[in-house]
């Protein structure tokens, strides 16, 4: 099979490896689409210098082969199914995993492949192997949308962390890709209103097509009702300050966007105490979030929100162009189609 490996900043090569074998509880998937997120862009731009890396963790494809212990199970992925694939590795043994919080598994992610590449999903390839428990059928949706299963699962997780309820007023800080997904899922789950706060006029204008109740700059927060729950999808101390201004007394703030090299944010302890605010983080996803994301894709209710988020599609042979576009220009999702 062909597989892409980022070998240095601005450099990627196509390697040939044998089609991987599968175990009794595993599934072989022929990749139909792999979305590129910020991580792949940072790897290619040199902002995340970890090389050589087999990247690509937002994957959808067709099941080509299933392990012996999977073949006869009800509702298990079957040969021919279009699936979205969870490529996260969960050890199952650490304290978070045993406590039902495998999103923050203590064991290192990824591993080392036989060609010496560090695996960070390794979905920029013609095939991937995953445990059957992490392969989710999605019906007949466009594979480029099915590849959004991973970010959708992350946003499902975010909404759970924020205890979103039907009738809640919602504010989303940031109108990027994840801001769009938060808007779509908040709408789907019955939010009374959804306001998007974004500094960039171009992004504000773009998200208006998804019909939020308001798309405003931070200076206009006083013109909209305060929110029961605020989702912060960008990493900055200014965004957190905006969230504190946007949230209603007794409300919840979810810190979804994060950056390890971002400036430290200030959290006013007395204000959190006096206003009885709940501030929580949301990182990655759990298996139950994948189940929900797969059903959202299968049902088609989010299709009108997701289709405009496919910025461009490239064949695997042009993966260098796909990575360069992801690394260097504002995009939602660039999709590679092996």
TrEMBL record:
Pathway note: Metabolic intermediate biosynthesis; 2-deoxystreptamine biosynthesis; 2-deoxystreptamine from D-glucose 6-phosphate: step 3/4
Record's catalysed reaction(s): 2-deoxy-scyllo-inosamine + NAD(+) = 3-amino-2,3-dideoxy-scyllo-inosose + NADH + H(+); 2-deoxy-scyllo-inosamine + NADP(+) = 3-amino-2,3-dideoxy-scyllo-inosose + NADPH + H(+)
Residue span(s) of domain Alcohol dehydrogenase-like C-terminal: 179-297
Top-tier EC class: oxidoreductase
Cofactor(s) essential for the protein: Zn(2+)
Pfam family, one: ADH_N
Domain Alcohol dehydrogenase-like N-terminal: start-end pairs: 23-138
Similarity section: Belongs to the zinc-containing alcohol dehydrogenase family. DOIA dehydrogenase subfamily.
Entry function: Catalyzes the oxidation of 2-deoxy-scyllo-inosamine (DOIA) with NAD(+) or NADP(+), forming 3-amino-2,3-dideoxy-scyllo-inosose (amino-DOI).
Name of the protein described by the UniProt record: 2-deoxy-scyllo-inosamine dehydrogenase
Organism: Streptomyces pactum
């Amino acid at each position: 099979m062909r597989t892409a490996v980022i070998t240095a900043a601005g450099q990627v090569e196509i390697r040939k490896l044998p089609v991987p074998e599968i175990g009794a509880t595993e599934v072989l998937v022929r990749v139909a689409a792999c979305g590129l997120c910020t991580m792949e862009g940072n790897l290619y731009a040199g902002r995340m210098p970890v090389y050589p890396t087999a990247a690509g963790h937002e994957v959808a494809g067709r099941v080509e082969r299933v392990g012996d212990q999977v073949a006869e199970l009800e509702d298990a992925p079957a040969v021919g199914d279009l699936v979205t694939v969870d490529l996260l590795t969960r050890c199952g043994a650490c304290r978070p995993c045993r406590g039902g919080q495998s999103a923050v598994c203590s064991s290192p992610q990824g591993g080392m492949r036989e060609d010496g590449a560090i695996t960070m999903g390794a979905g920029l390839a013609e095939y991937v192997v995953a445990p059957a428990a992490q392969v989710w059928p999605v019906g007949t949706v466009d594979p480029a949308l099915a590849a959004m299963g991973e970010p959708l699962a992350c946003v499902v997780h975010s909404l759970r962390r924020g205890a979103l309820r039907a009738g809640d007023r919602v504010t989303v800080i940031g109108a990027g890709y994840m801001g769009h997904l938060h808007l779509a899922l908040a709408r789907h789950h019955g939010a009374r209103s959804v306001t998007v706060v974004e500094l960039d006029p171009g992004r504000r204008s773009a998200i208006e097509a998804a019909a939020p109740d308001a798309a405003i700059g931070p200076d206009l927060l006083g013109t909209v009702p305060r929110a029961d729950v605020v989702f912060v999808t960008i990493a900055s101390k200014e965004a957190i300050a905006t969230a504190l201004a946007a949230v209603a007394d007794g409300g919840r703030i979810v810190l979804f966007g994060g950056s390890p090299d971002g400036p430290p944010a200030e959290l006013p302890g007395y204000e959190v105490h006096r206003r009885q605010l709940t501030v929580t983080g949301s990182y990655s996803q759990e298996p139950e979030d994948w189940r929900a994301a797969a059903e959202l894709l299968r049902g088609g209710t989010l299709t009108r929100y997701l289709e405009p988020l496919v910025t461009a599609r490239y064949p695997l042979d042009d993966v260098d162009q796909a990575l360069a576009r992801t690394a260097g220009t504002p995009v939602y999702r660039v999709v590679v189609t092996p």
